[in-house]
Design brief:
Dihydrodipicolinate Reductase, domain 2, five-stranded antiparallel sheet
Length: about 250
């Protein structure tokens, strides 16, 4: 894990065009570990943001119907576990602002954990996991008297509590009992739906679900996450100059 990939046993300059592989990246002597673990260095890859964050962003964009660049991004983190010479973070939390929607995403290579996405609103929580979806409703109103009023003098506190219960307590037998709804699949195919969508688009000439603009906006969020981390400051997207600025 964490890109600690073993290089091919027979890898050498004789069977790998090292200069071509480096391309325009900084020149270094042949290093089989750099070849196998290129994601670990920002000079050759985009770290966890470019590898993993893009999938979280694209999923969020699809669910919320967002197809634009984030307005702002603020990232932090560091190298907490994999101290092997890499310079990309192994823990990388990011706070985005998308179309007036705050989005928090967290990536870690230090702990194996389930992938969970939560959409939280005044009417409840939708939680997505690898194989399931659940919805937990919320009333969106106070279900108990204000905690603040416990500090009032007894006379005022008791009067407030009585009035609150008189106005809000349900009648016996009419207490609300909202139920969560869950859906779960036995498996998930992450290849066939993509291919089906692509071929259907070819046949019908209709746009794919995630076209080039959608992909650009998702990738841009990842670049903003990296820029914020390395600049150690929040960044924003300047649509006029098409640049990331601090």
């Amino acid at each position: 894990g964490a890109w600690e990939y073993p290089p091919p046993a027979d890898l050498s300059p004789e069977n790998l065009d090292w200069d071509t592989w480096l391309g325009t990246a900084p020149k270094k002597p042949f290093d089989p570990y750099l070849f196998a673990r290129w994601r670990c260095w920002k000079e050759y890859g985009t770290g966890v943001a470019g590898d993993l964050l893009v999938h979280l962003i694209s999923g969020m964009q699809f669910v919320l119907g967002i197809n634009e660049a984030p307005k702002r991004a603020s990232a932090f983190g560091g190298i907490y576990r994999w101290k092997d010479g890499r310079n990309t973070p192994d823990v990388h939390p990011v706070l985005f602002e998308y179309a007036n929607v705050p989005v928090y995403m967290r990536l870690t290579l230090g702990t194996e954990t389930s992938e969970v996405t939560r959409f939280m609103g005044s009417k409840g929580i939708i939680e997505l996991t690898e194989f399931g979806l659940s919805y937990t409703p919320q009333a969106g109103i106070d279900l108990a008297p204000s905690y603040y009023c416990y500090g009032l003098p007894s006379r005022l506190k008791n009067a407030y509590f009585k009035r609150w219960h008189d106005e809000h307590d349900p009648k016996p037998g009419e207490e609300p009992a909202p139920q969560s709804v869950s859906y779960r699949a036995n498996d998930y195919d992450d290849l066939r739906p993509h291919l089906w969508n692509f071929f259907q688009s070819v046949r019908s000439r209709k746009p794919v679900v995630q076209d080039v603009v959608f992909g650009h906006n998702a990738a841009l969020g990842c670049h903003m996450a990296n820029e914020s981390y390395y600049r150690k400051s929040p960044v924003y997207w300047d649509a006029v100059s098409q640049t990331i600025k601090s």
